[in-house]
From TrEMBL:
The chain crosses the membrane at residues 25-44. One of its GO terms (molecular function) is glycosyltransferase activity. This is Glycosyl transferase family 1 domain-containing protein. Gene3D superfamilies: Glycogen Phosphorylase B. Keywords: Glycosyltransferase, Membrane, Transferase, Transmembrane, Transmembrane helix. Pfam families: Glyco_trans_4_5, Glycos_transf_1. InterPro entries: Glyco_trans_1, Glyco_trans_4_5. The keyword Transmembrane applies. Residues 276-458 form the Glycosyl transferase family domain.
């Protein structure tokens, strides 16, 4: 069994002490973080649970401790992690936390289904887990911006502090990368796009490395199926796909090449109240008002435009039906105030023209989403087209006992139980009216919001915690290593 999460107080205070002292220290830290919530941070992992931090970032578990981890067999293994990028856009705004999203595995010949999301962020989580059991971990970023970036700098040094060798200052296409790939016991490619790294870097060594590659794929849009990206996919030791829905889509798109084969988060009510009050005050939202939030990078695919249309319609429904409900507000977390896109400009124009500018709030993109989860009443996951590959923010909202209004598409259908932990609506324009009705429904029934939030919280505890992830990913890694070793012997 994996080591259970530390309590909130223990993670912050670094050990035992009086409850009064721990609570005071926790509140001070949370208030400080909330006051600078738009900066890059790791609130959930840093303030709520990070056993590495409590004992020194680079410290691995002792032999006895590692023996209790399902990943203990990875001790002393050399693992090379190849990430396509390390950026805020790639991180999709979600914080490093101790939540992992992994209820089940579909185990075909070489296609594994793992419920994980967050691109580079999730790969970082795996790197930290492997370091804790004594693995040697090397990270290479294939695509790196030449511009100075505080987010990238922060993430790089977070990994370095955990003992992860970050080869970002070395050429990702240099001899060091080739040597690391050839020496590694396991190579993990992160994202389909990372497939472009193989041929130009490994060249003649590609056949040698393929049998020990585990390919972690997060994408499901059509252009990611280009042959230049995935031509080697049938020959790697295994592939991890973020949800059953995504796996089925990949299987159908590549049928000729693939074989079918928190809970300490938000439990401190005093800390949550402090964050709630601070964020609501900054937005001009009263405590008794109801706040609906969409927390994603602002883009058409995430559906902020359709959410705002539905929010506007919900206000009209309330007025037409003369319903007595608290004042409703909407917050869009994930804007880029320094470089507004045409799409975001359209969002803001709609808000002004509709006369709802006093009810809608735009917040700049941030890794520290915990304060906003503490402040809101309902999360809206409105990803369009095929939906969200899985959606880490959905899990985190459920950990905060929030009901979720999500599109009935993609991996969201595997997280949200319609009518139990939230309500689903169709993607596209046809989903606007149903979403508006669902907003009114939850605004009108406080007891239903509470009940759905509690059921979502219970679902997270039962299916989506770190020990679930560690056990299931251990099974995948064991099989990949077994195949790799078998190939080497042959």
């Amino acid at each position: 069994m994996a080591k259970p999460p530390l309590s909130v107080a223990a993670a912050v205070a670094g050990g035992r002490g009086s409850a009064h002292h721990r609570n005071r220290l926790l509140l001070l830290i949370l208030v400080a973080v909330a006051a600078s919530a738009s900066t890059a941070g790791f609130l959930l992992r840093g303030a709520l649970r990070d056993p590495c931090d409590a004992r020194g970032d680079s410290a691995a578990l002792t032999g006895a401790e590692a023996a209790g981890s399902p990943l203990e067999f990875m001790r002393s293994k050399l693992v090379l992690l190849v990430s396509h990028e390390l950026s805020l856009s790639g991180l999709d705004l979600n914080p490093v936390s101790h939540l992992f999203i992994l209820p089940c595995i579909v185990k075909p010949i070489n296609l594994y289904t793992l419920f994980l999301a967050g691109g580079p962020l999730l790969l970082m989580e795996l790197a930290f887990l492997l370091r804790r059991v004594g693995s040697q971990v090397v990270w290479i970023t294939n695509q790196r911006s030449e511009e100075t970036n505080d987010i990238t700098y922060s993430l790089e040094h977070k990994m370095l502090n955990h003992g992860v060798q970050v080869q970002m200052v070395l050429p990702a296409r240099g001899q060091e990368a080739v040597d690391a790939a050839r020496k590694a016991d396991l190579v993990i490619l992160n994202t389909a796009v990372a497939g472009k790294w193989l041929d130009p870097v490994l060249k003649d060594h590609v056949p040698e490395v393929l049998p020990k590659i585990l390919w972690w794929i997060h994408e499901m849009r059509g252009h990611y199926f280009k042959l230049e990206y995935v031509k080697h996919l049938p020959f790697v030791a295994g592939a991890m796909i973020d949800s059953h829905t995504t796996a089925e889509y990949w299987k159908s798109r590549t049928s000729d090449r693939l074989n079918k084969e928190l809970m300490e988060v938000a439990e401190d009510s005093v800390a949550r109240r402090v964050l709630r009050e601070h964020i609501r005050e900054s937005l001009g939202v009263r405590n008794e008002d109801i706040l609906f939030a969409i927390i994603n990078s602002v883009s058409r695919g995430k559906g902020q435009d359709l959410f705002l249309q539905a929010f506007y319609q919900s206000l009209q429904l309330i007025q037409q039906q003369k319903l007595k409900v608290p004042v409703l507000h909407a917050v869009v977390v994930g804007s880029d105030l320094n470089a507004q896109t045409k799409f975001e400009t359209q969002l803001r124009d709609f808000v002004v023209k509709s006369g709802i500018h006093a009810r809608v709030h735009f917040v700049n993109k941030t890794l520290a989403v915990a304060p906003y989860l503490a402040a809101i009443d309902v999360l809206v996951q409105n990803s369009q087209a095929r939906g969200e590959c899985f959606g880490r923010i959905t899990i985190e909202a459920m950990a905060f006992k929030l009901p979720v209004l999500g599109t009935a598409a993609g991996g969201t259908t595997e997280i949200v139980v319609d009518g139990s932990t939230g309500l689903l609506h169709p993607a596209g324009k046809e989903g606007v009216a149903p979403l508006a009705k669902n907003i009114v429904r939850l605004a009108s029934h406080a007891e239903q919001r509470v009940a759905m939030g509690k059921k979502g919280y219970d679902r997270v505890k039962e299916m989506f915690m770190e020990h679930h992830m560690a056990g299931r990913i251990a099974a995948v890694l064991k099989e990949v290593l077994k195949k790799s070793q078998g190939h080497s012997h042959s």
